[in-house]
Write a structure and sequence with these properties.
Layout: H1 3-12, H2 20-32, E1 39-42, H3 51-58, E2 67-71, H4 80-85, H5 101-105, E3 110-114, H6 121-133, E4 135-137, E5 144-146, E6 150-155, H7 159-164, H8 170-176, E7 179-182, H9 192-208, E8 214-215, H10 217-225, H11 231-245, E9 250-251, H12 253-257, H13 264-267, H14 281-318, H15 325-333, E10 340-341, E11 349-350, H16 354-370, H17 376-390, H18 395-402, H19 406-415
Parallel strand pairs: 1-6, 1-7, 2-3, 3-6, 8-9
Antiparallel strand pairs: 4-5, 10-11
Helix pairs in contact: 2-3, 6-8, 9-11, 14-16, 17-18, 18-19
Length: about 425
Amino acid sequence: MNTSELQKIKQRYNIVGNCDGLNRALDVALQVASTDLSVLIVGESGVGKEILPHIIHDHSPRKRERYFAINCGSIPEGTIDSELFGHEKGSFTGAIGESEGYFGITNKGTIFLDEVGELPLATQARLLRVLETGEYIRVGGQTVMKTDVRIVAATNINMSKAVSEGRFREDLYYRLNTIPIQMPPLRDRGEDILLLFRLFSMQMAEKYHLPKISLTEDAQLLMLNYKWPGNVRQLKNITEQMSVLVQDRMINAEMLQQFIPRDPQSMQLAPIGSKGGHNYESERDLLYKILYELRGNISDLRRDVTSLRQQLDDAQSLMGGSAYQGQLQAIAATTHAFPTVTNSNSVPTKTVPAQNVVIQEDAVAEELSESESLNLNDIGRQMVEKALDRNGGNRKKAAQELGISDRTLYRRIKQYGLDK
């Protein structure tokens, strides 16, 4: 495509930038638009992938038909099949009528499946059938439906890795990836960063009647070297913040740094070239493996401590609560000297070193061995009787003295025959 045609496309869709990666993506989108081939757009979150399906649809023979953009990651797994393929009346709770689903409504048109990598495996199988035969069955239905739709998908995940990990069907990946389009990240677009900043600052000035903000040379250099992990979306957000909050409309590097995140990862300078860079993939995988093993060790230790606490609670309950309350509390109190280990999927749990666990178990065993010659039922009966006598038969107060619940006390009264 010649430069003039490309510029017309950019003006029509308000696309700013002249980097080779962006121009190549637009060129491929326009070339494939006249066909019915499936397209997979790959790029990081925030790079602007959603503009390409619009271009493809508007320049295809389906341009007069419907276009639907669907975010697969925002639809709950339990309802996504119904949303995409429709359902029959009464097929599930709340299905008060029939639904055609997006594939039925968009017949002859184009469907854009954003975040397609988030689709459940069962839905992936349905989608593969639609791609191969144009057929699908509604949820709760038996009739085979037909549809003729153009599918354009997008993802920000590593699809090859998802396939190798079993999270995405390999056959569906190759079916969607008939025509791949790569959208470049903002950090690789060079001077486009400054062009986008001027666009966003101008839009804010016009919309809110504010003086337009500009960048000094040192601020421009900082913008060009920043990694922009949030890509175009992050740049727009920061520009809008500065347009509203900064008094001085000429932004220098010091002022810009107040709006750019200071975490080490995002503050790293963008690479100058795409070749010869160090690959951190193996180091990152090794770190993930170490963290996973550590998490398993913590889980095992937490189970051991929970088992020990259960043993202590059982022993306390067996002894009636009062006689051994102090001893068991003294043993359990040693656990509070150690730090709390938390897990993202569990509540905070106190951890105990192995040597202290052995000491605690030995202490409980010693106490129990000393009372082996005693009849535990007789001891329990005597304790309950004395507690009731001291409290004038008030069961609630007796239970509090024994350190047990009212229900447990009632059960023991019945067990010992004291209710007669």
